[in-house]
Amino acid sequence: MEHIVIIGNGISGITAARHIRKLSDKKITIISAETEHFFSRTALMYIYMGHMKYEHTKPYEDSFWKKNRIDLKFGLVTAINTEHKSLQLENNENMQYDKLIVATGSISNKFGWKGQDLKSVIGLYSKQDLDQLEAIAPNNEVCQRAVVVGGGLIGIELAEMLHTRKIPVTFLVREERFWDGVLPRGDADMLGRHILSHGIDLRLNSNLSEITSDAHGNANGVIIAETGETISCNLVGLTAGVSPNIGLIKSTAIETDRGVLVNRYLETNVKDVYAIGDCAQQREPIGNRKPIEAVWYTGRMMGEALAQTICGNRMAYNPGHWFNSAKFFDIEYQTYGWVFATPKKGYAHFHWKHDDGQKCITIEYQEASNIFLGINTFGIRMRHEVFDRWLTEQRTTDYVIKNLKEANFDPEFYKTFEEEINNAYKYQFKMAYR
Amino acid sequence: MSTKTNSSMSLAKPDSQTLSKTQKIAVALGIVGLFIMALTLFNVDFPNKPLFLSLSLGLITAGTIMFSNNAYLTKQAGIKNDGVWFKSIASRGLWGWALGIVLTLFYIVLYFKAEWLGLAADGGANGGLVALFDPLSRLLNGGPASQWFVYGTLYTVAILVFGYKFMLKYRHNRYEQLRTISVMFFQLAFAFLIPEFMARLNSETFSLPYYDLKNIWPLNFYNFDKYRVDSMIEAGDIGLAFLIFGIVSIFVISPILTYKYGKRWYCSWVCGCGGLAETAGDPFRHLSDKSQFAWKVERWVVHSVVVFVTLMTTAVIYSYLGNDSSKYWLTKDVFLLGVAGLLTVVFALVMLFKRKELAKDAQYGAIGYFVIIMVLIGMHYFSGTKNVFLVDTYFLKSSYGFLIGAIFSGVIGVGFYPIFGNRVWCRFGCPMAAMLGFQQRLFSKFRITTNGGQCISCGNCSTYCEMGIDVRAYAQKGENIVRSSCVGCGICAAVCPRGVLKLENDSMNGRINSNDILLGNDVDLMDLVNQK
Ligand SMILES: Cc1cc2nc3c(=O)[nH]c(=O)nc-3n(C[C@H](O)[C@H](O)[C@H](O)COP(=O)(O)OP(=O)(O)OC[C@H]3O[C@@H](n4cnc5c(N)ncnc54)[C@H](O)[C@@H]3O)c2cc1C
Ligand code: SF4
Ligand code: SF4
């Protein structure tokens, strides 16, 4: 029986395993050094916030794996020998494979800051990171201030987490606005105000210069590059993005760049070795997508596609229209299609915002044809299925705005804003054609 | 999903989830209010009962309002689950167990030892707690209080004050607010005030049984008892109207509303048990068991209760009907055949048209139960045993009343809120919920729509589903949630951080979709995998 070995029990590896099991009878082993069972990394914040226990973040009951004959191995892979098709584990145990799937995920970025390896400096990626956070910052007596470095999705989650334990947070963001490498100005400004309204000490245009240490090797402050100001603190969270976790792969015959290089079939340069999820890097970019996509959905989709290939139905990874979502404190965000921070040449933005500072949308469209390229929606839920269809049908923005009601996904009885948006849209165009 | 959690019995909290000063004062006010009531149990006889009753209820109300205002209005609107699993009372810690035990003891005394609460022996005057409520009872219905009046009042106050708290907690969510107003209204008007006023109308010549009009059989399993039916018939047109309403609500009103809106129209907009669960019970909703095993137990137990209540009611009505068709058309035989016929029609329709939508064990269960009922009816019919269904009617009825009516719905249902969550009764015990759920699963426009591929499997929805539905298991597959037990509380949709879930009524077509691959993928791959 063919033995499929998967390194990494995150969403991508697990999805591949489940689908291989559905399609075949192959022997499947999943190895991980993080947790015994698959849990949802995206829910890490809710454990610290007390919304859930670790157990609740496991999407499948522990008995699921045995029932589906998926073997779980808890341990660290230390070496891969692609010639002999074998792996070495931490305790020198060896394991043979017929096909190997590398799904090792990411690690938190560190940019060589002075003091980045001190105690009480953490990233937020793994269960171990969370345990460490719990130890360093159980409450606001032990941790009197925290500094979060890096204004992205994980940074704001960490800020919100600490905030729920009433720990004062200073949030250093290198850019002029929060997450403005991705978000258009109107959206980013609204979020900036929302972050401030929760009492977070948001510092824009602020780079970390160094982390200072006390006598015991614990971080006790950070110095801001621009102002030279020292902010004393008991915890430093480094959340300046993630990069593929390929330390293990680098010493093998498997070709890497920033990530493990794969073709559209998720195959590496070595036969019978594949890579999926956060750690994979596409040799040829797909549409507007980045070659490394470190999000939940793409990991899942790669797992689904690869399972087909492994089970004899060779299939390219061919994602549909881009989508994503997040939540910033109380404001939910969804995006469908592409909205860039600054519209590409020949494209423009339509922006509407509500007076309460909690809702806004931005639509990107092609100016000449009025064709709709994508939408960012904050504080209003929208239907994935409808936008996916409109994107496929290449609808115009006029059409999208007129039919926006169809896409509304807010709970029943919620106030709706389609009319207001429609009026704002008409007004913007009237002004434009004057 | 797995729900084995390591609850700490420690009183120290892992973080600063302590109460604020205002909240401490609020709790103190509430405790003083309760203390006044507790004193009456030790035979403290308050001189001015109206004053002390008002003081007691007033303090409880004021305390809860003050607490809620401080807990929610000092923060921005949004999901308020911070620290839920760190709070001893909400995570099966020491305080949780203590509260559970106190509530359970209260229910045991209420149901079985009402004299300890001060209920008068025949003819005497009330003492203790019951006497404290005499003035209010006199004001409303003209008579002295009973233990049920005390309970009804406390129940209503609980729904009102904790309803207020719930509305603040979800002040960003109109669905939650509206349905809470609705349960508060139905409890106050239909369950509490109207029946009390109706009792005022009773006289020597005219008497209506206590009737909470929003209670529908089988929830009010006693509705067709002989004494009730007799007194409704004797009360003339009004009584007859009530009787007819009772029957119409089972066979017409409830099926239509459930078809259009799902069982939520009742379970989380009208029902009193649901009302208490959603308001006072809200802090415990995450304690429900989400395991596959619990789901299995739920299906067998709750459907057995349905069979039990059907048999029991049939036997009760049967026992007082006559044999002579010339006196009244509805004789023992006509009735029994009617019941058998109705069950056969429902069973046949489901098996013919909806079998595909039932799981294997549900099919076996349905067949098994159907056969048992038919055999029992047949045996009675052909062998002429004295007791329909082999056992004595009185025994059937009293054991139902004891096991289901008292132990299950009260002692376990509410007493165990802090241990098993707030909807244990609704999930495992309520025959009404089971019947509405059966229809919801097979014949209703209601579903929870999943938003394409947006789910991140975080688990908030499953954790906060009070019915123990593993919502995530469906959402992460892009599958709509069409579950008979879903009461449509809407909390899963509210707590979802990615906007994945929406409760809605739409066409029956494609309501139950099962996906293996989600939206966002290559369309060919989706077709390939999902068509199989
Ligand atoms: C806090 C946080 C919030 C997030 N929120 C979102 C979100 O809201 N939406 C979204 O789309 N994405 C989100 N993401 C990103 C998303 O979680 C990741 O893209 C996704 O989990 C990656 O899955 P994966 O299967 O590629 O890898 P991972 O989930 O990282 O799994 C890799 C596993 O492999 C193990 N491993 C690695 N090397 C070895 C070895 N040598 N031996 C044994 N085991 C090994 C690792 O320990 C790890 O357990 C979030 C990420 C974080 C950290
Ligand atoms: S599935 Fe959602 S709406 Fe239904 S009972 Fe559970 S939480 Fe409430
Ligand atoms: S539906 Fe929402 S709450 Fe439930 S697991 Fe998915 S993202 Fe989380």
UniProtKB/TrEMBL annotation, chain A:
GO molecular function, one term: oxidoreductase activity
Matches recorded under InterPro entries: FAD-bd_OxRdtase, FAD/NAD-bd_sf, FAD/NAD-binding_dom
A Pfam family assignment: Pyr_redox_2
Annotated source species: Gelidibacter salicanalis
Positions of the FAD/NAD(P)-binding domain: 3-283
The family this protein is said to belong to: Belongs to the FAD-dependent oxidoreductase family.
Keywords: FAD, Flavoprotein
Domain of life according to the entry: Bacteria
PANTHER family associated with the record: NITRITE REDUCTASE [NAD(P)H], PYRIDINE NUCLEOTIDE-DISULFIDE OXIDOREDUCTASE DOMAIN-CONTAINING
Cofactor: FAD
Name of the molecule in the record: NAD(P)/FAD-dependent oxidoreductase
TrEMBL record, chain B:
Keywords, comma-separated and alphabetical: 4Fe-4S, Electron transport, Iron, Iron-sulfur, Membrane, Metal-binding, Transmembrane, Transmembrane helix, Transport
GO CC terms of this entry: plasma membrane
Record-annotated 4Fe-4S ferredoxin-type domain positions: 446-474, 477-506
Keyword Nucleotide-binding listed: no
GO molecular function (one): metal ion binding
Superkingdom of this protein's organism: Bacteria
One matching Pfam family: Fer4_5
Iron among keywords: yes
Annotated transmembrane regions: 25-44, 50-73, 94-112, 148-168, 180-199, 238-259, 300-322, 334-352, 364-382, 402-420
InterPro entries reported for this sequence: 4Fe4S_Fe-S-bd, 4Fe4S_Fe_S_CS, Electron_Trans/Redox
Name of the protein in its database record: 4Fe-4S binding protein
Source organism phylogeny: Bacteria, Pseudomonadati, Bacteroidota, Flavobacteriia, Flavobacteriales
